[in-house]
Amino acid sequence: MRLMVDRRLIAHFDGLTLLTTLTILGLGAMTVYSATFDGSTGTHTSHAWRQATWGSVGLVGLLLAVFFDYRKLERYAFLFYAVGLCLLIAVPLFGSMGGGSRRWLTFGPVTLQPSETMKLALIILLARLFHRRTHPGGLRLRDLAIPAAVTMAPVLLILAQPDLGTAGVFLFVFASMLLLAGPSPGTLGLLVLAALGAVPVLMSQLKPYQLKRITTFLNPELEPLGSGYHVIQSKIAIGSGGMTGRGYLRGTQNQLNFLPEQHTDFIFSVFSEEWGFFGAIALIGLYVLLLIRGLVVVNRAKERFGALLAFGVLANIFWQAAINLGMTTGLLPVVGITLPFFSYGGSSLVTLLAGLGLVINVNMRRHSRDRLPRL
Amino acid sequence: MRLSSHEAPHELRRTIVLAGLIVVTVFGILGARLYALQVGEADRWSSLSENNRIRLQRIPPTRGLVLDANGDPLVDNRPAYDVVIVPEDTKDLEATLQRTSILLDLPPARIETLKKAARKRPAYEGLTAYRDVDWNAVVALETQQLELPGVNLEVGPLRTYPFGDFASHLLGYVGEVSGSDLEAGNYRMGDLIGKFGAERAWESYLRGVAGGQQIEVNSLGRRLRVLSRVPETRGNSLVLTIDRRLQQFAEQLLEGKEGAIVALRPNTGEVLAMASRPSFDPNPFARGIRQKEWDALTSAKYDPLSNRALQGQYPPGSTFKIITAAAGLEEGIITPFSRLYCGGSYRFGKRRYRCWKRGGHGSMNLHDALVYSCDVFFYQVGKQLGVDTIAEYSRRFGLGAPTGIALANEKPGLIPTSDWKKRRFNEPWYSGETLSVAIGQGFVLTTPLQMANVIAMVANGGVQYRPQYVGRVEAPHGEIIEQLEPEVLGDAGLRRSTLHQIREALRDVVNGKRGTGKKSKLPNIDVGGKTGTAQVFRMGRKAVKTEHMARHLRDHAWFVAFAPVDEPEIAISIVIEHAGRGGGAAAAPLARDLADFYFALTRGRDYQLTDASAESGVSLAAMTESSIEPPSEAMRVEMTDGIRARMLGMHGRS
């Protein structure tokens, strides 16, 4: 393998993207520490340390994802997908429970969340499928059959865990990549109609607690306990942060445990309470920077596969961030989606960083005229 | 249709620009939202944060009731004082727990459990530390209130079994949720869950849905006001097929004995009574059984926690001859007219297999063999059938497998086959063992419930029903949620003449002059039945008198019965452990009394109790009016704060 590459590749290494991500990562680990810090005893759990460890593992993953021509991935797309699917199938058989659903596989000291790793595998496979399937007038409905099928398989498995939020993100990523791949106007119209038609069907399939979350969102008075209570406490945390925040480790909503899932789903509330409007806007700005910069990469990509691949990774980051921020600020129902690069969670962090490595990879090789090296 | 790798993806540009716009718009909206929350409404949220004295309190659901067939409550709820601790409001949780346990004179063993529970939930949520504390504890806590911030008294519903150890194996008990039930996620630490009996089997119906309230508290954690409240949903009630009076009667019959009585309705499988003795009081479980009480129960003689009706496995003894007889007739090995000779014993190989009657029964047909319960007759039938054919007919009668009643841990019993012995002991089946099996000895094991099913099948023409003790499920206000229909599980597939032959023989077991079960004869109604004496210990050459045998070596007494023979309404199975006397002497009279009582209940005034029953000290009037007072209406009230005053009064009286 020709790993040592010409200088132009190094020159095109996207330092800005990496720097932005490292900043978000650092702020995240810091906030995880705060969220798991017990002010009354001055003790903390090992979450922040573990998050930093996973961050390092993820950065190694990011670098590994940079030092080879990303186009090679196309060949292994089905292999990755198959491995990811096997892990997902293993979850209901050997997985461990938590909070009423079965989402994790345990290997010794390491806990893996296969739905996270599956995301990247699916993005790679969809990039391959959409890349190879084009049509002069845009993709026809029949061109979507296989991409839709490979998406639905993990979605159904994840719905069964049950993890409604993650399954939804899969569908959003699929829709985003499909949009980039270019459906014909007729297909697009049909899909929009089908999506609208699916809403009542999906509603009827929801478990009572899932439906409750949505009705709670529409009318918080209906459930003052449970998720309605969580949203109120989250809004108190964010709102009481004010313009400049209450200071690091000094947010009472966090320290007094009024916030639920402080180090995962509601970590943004902890951050906003401590750093105020300025901090929160700065963090949101970092995400915008990351995403816009990523879109530039997509725009410059040399060919469709790279563009689709990078776009898929970005779509995942975008949807997760938008949904998480929307739910902590009370704009969206509580669905249990974490904030990318920020919330505690090893599998998610490593997968996200590896995905970002691929975006950087696509950028680096935008001028490369090499043919794919043979294996 | 693959694009060349050099073709720049221009057609993507429009979508990319659109995506950029979407990113900017969405994050713009989020920024605006943050501005509104953190700048516009900052004051409001800050003051809410400063005074965040909103506490969550779960309102545990009131479990559904369990009623008998006539609507009398058998399991109920009563208001009780629970000690609820809100960790957030305590100064030091551990010290508070220590102090509370000393103050209430409660075992300190629970402190560790409570600390563990407290770690697993938000600190602002109340934790039920002790249930049903007594009046002294209430007074002690009230006077120490200022020194124990975060410790509150709440009135909550407590599961109560007003009749104590009545039908406790069937009704079951509740306890705090643990282990795998917690993991499944539908329960919270400290919730009550059905652990045994109907409470466990019907948990999802009985449980109800917890409500909750947001309450505002002062700086000491005392409640100021309720901000919002979601009422609990009460659980649904079970209406049993069991009549409390018949059940009580059955239990009285077993008083001082170890054993079980099962009564079924042959044409539906409904359970009319299911008694198992010794028994236990389920009440302590609901408030949290203390270690001492639990140790006493588990170490008690004769295992009171075991439901002998479906967990006790006994050799069926001669009651099993019903099955050998049916198999013999069906397989054509005997006809009703075949006669076989009994000379008091039967030589097979090198061994002599004795009949219970030393002198022998002489030559007789199947009818008389059943009536006199001749062993030698059935040795010969069994030998010709072979063990595997006997096993096949046993299975058709539902033996060797659980009956499928909705109660956990039902035992399957055991019906041996040659394959089974090969697998179990790696030994071939010896024909001599078949002779033991033919008379219900040897490896054969059955539960009283299974034998009740067998006799019900004889009575109803061979249909196997699932035994059901719940007739319907009702919502708290009485609407029927689910009506349970009889469920046919199978059919023995026997000729009508076969069952007719057996029924006629069983009629004479009771009504014949020398029938072995004549002690269960009723004057006005034809009872059919079969005695059984299950040998626990095989005597050698020297017979030992029962009185000289250790209790655990004495025989079990069986009796299975149905009545009236021609239009059966009740099927009864009775086993008395180590009775030391045969089924005809020890169990048959109980079946008579139970049937007698049953007909007195159902036939009303027209029915005259027999003198024998009257002699045995049972007064129908006393029974029907119930010696135990049912709970008064005042006790069964909705659990609200308003009940506090009434509680005070109640305690004051006691």
Secondary structure elements and pairings:
The complex is a heterodimer of chains A (375) and B (654).
Chain A: H1 7-11, H2 15-35, E1 37-38, E2 43-44, H3 47-64, H4 73-94, E3 96-98, E4 101-107, E5 110-112, H5 114-132, H6 145-159, H7 164-181, H8 185-205, H9 208-218, H10 226-241, H11 252-255, H12 267-300, H13 304-328, H14 346-364
Antiparallel strand pairs in A: 1-2, 3-4, 4-5
Helix pairs in contact in A: 2-3, 2-12, 3-14, 4-5, 5-6, 5-7, 5-13, 5-14, 6-7, 7-13, 10-12, 12-13, 12-14, 13-14
Chain B: H1 13-40, H2 42-50, E1 54-59, E2 66-67, E3 73-85, H3 93-103, H4 110-119, E4 127-130, H5 135-143, E5 151-160, H6 168-171, E6 173-176, H7 179-183, E7 192-196, H8 197-201, H9 203-206, E8 211-217, E9 223-230, E10 237-240, H10 244-253, E11 259-264, E12 271-277, H11 283-287, H12 291-299, H13 308-311, H14 321-330, E13 340-342, E14 345-348, E15 351-354, E16 362-364, H15 366-372, H16 375-385, H17 387-396, H18 418-425, H19 431-438, H20 448-460, E17 463-465, E18 470-474, E19 480-483, E20 488-491, H21 496-511, E21 528-534, E22 556-563, E23 570-576, H22 583-586, H23 588-603, H24 611-615, H25 620-625, H26 644-653
Parallel strand pairs in B: 2-10
Antiparallel strand pairs in B: 1-8, 2-3, 3-4, 3-5, 6-7, 8-9, 10-18, 11-12, 11-23, 13-16, 14-15, 17-20, 18-19, 21-22, 22-23
The share of residues in extended strands of chain B comes to 15-25%
Mean pLDDT of chain A: 85
* Radius of gyration of chain A, in angstroms, nearest whole number: 21 Å
Give the largest chain-chain interface (CB within 8 Å). Answer: A-B, 62 and 55 residues
Architecture of the largest domain in chain B, CATH level 2? 3-Layer(aba) Sandwich
Question: How many domains, in number, for the residues of chain B?
Answer: 2
Strand content of chain A: under 5%
The number of helical segments of chain A is: 14
How many strand units of chain B? 23
